[in-house]
Amino acid sequence: MSAPGLELSDEALAELRAALDPGHLLVDRELCAGFEHDITGRFGGAACAVARPADTAQVAAVVRICAKRAIPLVPQGGNTGLVGGGVPRGGELVVWLGRLQQLGDVDQVAAQVIVGAGVTLEQLQRHAHAAGLDVGIDHGARAAATICGMAATNAGGGLALRYGTMRAQIAGIEAVLADGSILRRLSGVLKDNAGYDLPALLIGSEGTLAVITAVAVRLVPAHRHRVTALVGLAGMEDALALFATLRQRVGSLVGTDFFDACGLARVRDHRGLRAPFERAWPVYLVIECAADVDPTEELAGAVEESGIALDVAFADDSQGRAKLWAYRELQNESVAAGGVPHKLDVSVRIPDVPRFAAEVRDLIAAFDATAEVILYGHLGDGNVHVNVLGPDPDDARVDVAVLELVARYGGSISAEHGVGIAKREHLHLSRSRAEIDAMQRLKHALDPGDILNPGCVLPAGGSATRPRQSATGG
Ligand code: MLT
Ligand code: ZN
Fold first, then answer.
1. Left (φ > 0), alpha (ψ -120 to 50) or beta: where does 390 sit?
2. What is the pLDDT of residues 418-432, one digit of tens each?
3. Residue 212 Cα, ligand 2 centroid: separation in angstroms?
4. Which end of the chain has fewer CB within 10 Å, C or N?
5. CA 208 → CA 65, 263, 449, distances in Å?
C-alpha cells in the first residue's frame, strides 16, 4: 500500500518498476519508513514510494517518468542533513542514491577521483589515503554523509579554513536535469571557461535544479604529520585572539573549531567521557595542524606565547587526536539526545563571532530564561552552530530572532547546512529581492514542472518579494 497524499497510479508504478532493478521500488509502508524522517526528528513526511536506482541511467529514467507524470521527487543520500531538504514533506517520491557506489581510480597526477553519488565521505577518505592523498573536507557525519549530498548542500566542516567548502573540492559533475537529460562534465579540466559554470550552479542547489549522480573530487596532499590541540579558554574573545595568533604564526594550521562548557557537559553525559582537564573552562578550541615536518613545536610555541591558554592537551597519533576531536564532533548527537533542538547554522564575519555569541545568548535568555544554549562551530570561517534546548521545537520565534540577529550582523542565515525547508521563508534575511527573483527564474527555467525537491530552498510565493533587512552589525 502506498502513502496517503500522492497515490501513484498503477501505470506510474509499472513504469518506475521497469526503470529500476527488481525489488528496488519500495512501496511497503514499513520499508519506506526508514527514508521518511531526518535525524533531527524535526522534518519528514510520508513518501509515495522510494526508488533505489543503481546508476545514472536509472536515475535519468526515474526523473523522466516523474517529469512526464508530474511526480515530485526528493533526492536522498546519507540522510544526515539538518534542514529538512533530504526527506519528503508528504507524498513525494524519494530517490535514494546510496547504490551509486562508483569509486574510480585515483588520478595521482591530477590528484582527482570520480565518485558516485552514494559513496560516503569516510569511504572516499580511505580510498584517497590508500593512494597517498587526502580529502580536503571532513566532518563528524563522515560515516554516513554521501559525497553528492555534500555537493548538493555545499557542505563545509572543520577544514574549510584551509581548503574551502565542498565547491572548492569539485572539479567536475554529472547530474540529471528535470527532463531526465544527463549533464556530464567530469573531464576534471581545471581551467575551463567555456560558457556558464553549470557545475558551480548545481553545487549547493540542494536537489532543486538537478539530481547530482557523480562528482570529480580534487584531492589534497596527505601530510606526514598531524597534530591536534585542545585548549581551554576564558571566553570567545580569547578564542578569537588565539585564532588570530595561530593564523599569523602557524603555517600548518588547517582547522580551529570551538565548543562551550554546556556542550562539553552534554557530550560527557551522553557518551560517558572523562573530562579533558581537571577544571572546566567556558570555551574550548580544537586546533588541527598538518605538515610534512612535525608541526607540534610550531603549534605549542604559538599557543604558549599567546599567553591566553588556560589548559592545553596535544595529541599526534590518530587515537589521541580522535579522543580530543570527540569532544567537538559528538556535540550534534549529544544535543539531539537531549530533545529536539532549535538548530541554526549561521555565519558572521570572524571578528564578530564573540560579540554575536554573547548577543545570541542574551537574546535567547530574554525569550526563555530556562533555555539551554549550546554554541559550537568552526571559528576559522565564522561559522556558529546555535543549538537551543527547552523552547517548544515547533515555536519558531527563537529561530526567527536568531536569524534576524544574523542579518543585523550582515552574516549568512545558512553557512554550511543549506536552506532546506527550515530556512526558506527567511532567505530574504541574507539575499536581496533581486537575488531571490533570479533564483526563482533559474529554478523555473531548469525545472518548469517544479518536480525537483519542490518547496526546498526558495520561499513560497509572495515571501520572495519581501525586502532584505539592512545589516547594522559591524
Ligand atoms: C558540526 O559542525 O558538528 C555539524 O555541522 C553538525 C551540527 O551543526 O550540529
Ligand atoms: Zn559544522
1. left
2. 999 999 999 999 999
3. 22
4. N
5. 17, 34, 11
